[in-house]
Write a structure and sequence with these properties.
Elements lengths: L5 E14 L4 E2 L3 E2 L3 E19 L4 E6 L2 E2 L1 H13 L10 E9 L9 H21 L4 H15 L11 E4 L13 E3 L11 E7 L10 H7 L6 H21 L2 H20 L10 H17 L4 E4 L5 E6 L4 H12 L8 E7 L1
Parallel strand pairs: 5-7
Antiparallel strand pairs: 1-4, 2-3, 4-7, 4-8, 5-6, 8-9, 10-12, 10-13, 11-12
Helix pairs in contact: 2-3, 5-6
This protein binds (3R)-3-hydroxy-3-methyl-5-(phosphonooxy)pentanoic acid.
């Protein structure tokens, strides 16, 4: 065994789902397909040192501070993917990560984090196992990232990304994500803003593992999975035609459905805060009064992703956010991102 110490580093962005993944089967198989926007600026930068030949162990640092819990999670993950990377347990790792966005923002650091780790692993794999095409290597990184955190597999590609088998998306798979074809996307969706309003900075009251698990006993789960599959039909048409009004309706419905599912779980979870509802109502009032395309989506938390295209009215929308919406955040925080592709 001739592997020596290697150091690699990679960067991976987070993503925000438009059609949501909530509910899964064994081996990280999603109960329904999902589609997301990759957030260009919310990234995890990871460097990985591999000391070949030493006893398998993992040490992790987040922004310079040692994270023992995270290291345990990564150890378990590495054991889990040994069947795909036979060399993986044959050495010691020191992994240092930092996020370019606040930890408390509710922006999925597990997506960018596992995306970056999977990319680092593929870089090491290239050193050890020889070359694969860029395309194959990305696909395998997406496959590996999925086994760490489902939604992470969508972070390997820029733009709009689909994970989960859908009749509407050629080449889609439950095992890895695929890029939604640029030629099928109207320009309005290629230059989009996502501003995250930091409503609440506390710990999430439900982990996504527990959340997905609650779908197993949710009496509405099957109906929801079918709805998500069905939503790919209008989504495909909307992405092609640029029908922003229909897009808004679909994306907001998906966000509210995710939260409705949690409210109907046993035990029930309400992850929105007062501020979340206030902001949603203000967005709806603003749209009713101005007709401008400002809308929202939510992750499994209280913070609100404000979405709007750069289609001429963005200055008015930004002014509204800065004056009317920022007061509802705990520490007046907003993380600004722009999805350009
Ligand atoms: O990837 P996980 O297991 O953390 O699940 C994420 C689920 C949501 O973020 C709520 C929705 C999604 O599709 O990203």
């Amino acid at each position: 065994f001739t592997i020596h110490t290697q150091a690699v580093s990679e960067s991976c962005p987070s993503n925000i789902a438009l059609i949501k993944y909530w509910g899964k089967y064994d081996n990280q198989i999603p109960a329904n397909p999902s589609i997301s926007y990759t957030l260009n600026h919310c990234k995890t930068n990871t460097s990985m040192e591999f000391f070949a030949g030493e006893t398998f162990s993992v040490q992790t640092f987040l922004s310079g501070n040692e994270e023992v819990k995270f290291a345990e999670k990564i150890e378990k993950y590495f054991r889990n993917i040994e069947q795909y990377l036979p060399w993986i347990l044959k050495g010691k790792y020191i992994i240092s990560t930092e996020n370019t966005f606040p930890h408390s923002s509710g922006i999925a650091s597990s997506a960018s984090g596992f995306g970056a780790i999977a990319k680092c692993l593929m870089k090491l794999d290239k050193e050890f196992s020889g070359s694969e095409s860029e395309e194959e290597s990305l696909r395998k990184a997406s496959f590996l990232a999925r086994l760490g955190s489902g939604s992470a597999c969508r972070s390997l590609y820029n733009g709009l990304v689909v994970w989960g088998t859908s009749d509407e998306v050629e080449g889609s798979s439950d095992l890895f994500a695929v890029k939604y074809p640029d030629t099928e996307i109207h320009d309005i969706f290629k230059n989009f803003n996502d501003w995250v309003l930091l409503i609440h900075e506390g710990q999430k009251s439900v982990s996504s593992t527990v959340g997905h698990g609650l779908m197993n006993t949710n009496p509405y789960a099957e109906r929801r999975f079918q709805e998500a599959r069905d939503n790919f039909v209008p989504m495909k048409e909307i992405l092609k035609s640029g029908e922003i009004g229909q897009f808004i309706k679909l994306v907001e419905h998906e966000a509210l459905t995710l939260h409705a599912m949690m409210m109907m779980s046993d035990p029930a979870f309400i992850l929105m805060k007062t501020g979340t509802l206030e902001v949603i109502n203000k967005i709806w009032d603003f749209r009713r009064e101005t007709g401008l395309p400002l809308f929202f989506t939510l992750d499994a938390g209280a913070n609100v992703h404000l979405l709007f295209p750069n289609s001429g009215s963005e200055d008015k929308i930004k002014a509204f956010i800065e004056t009317e919406l920022l007061q509802h955040t705990q520490k007046n925080g907003v993380v600004k991102d722009i999805m350009k592709f």
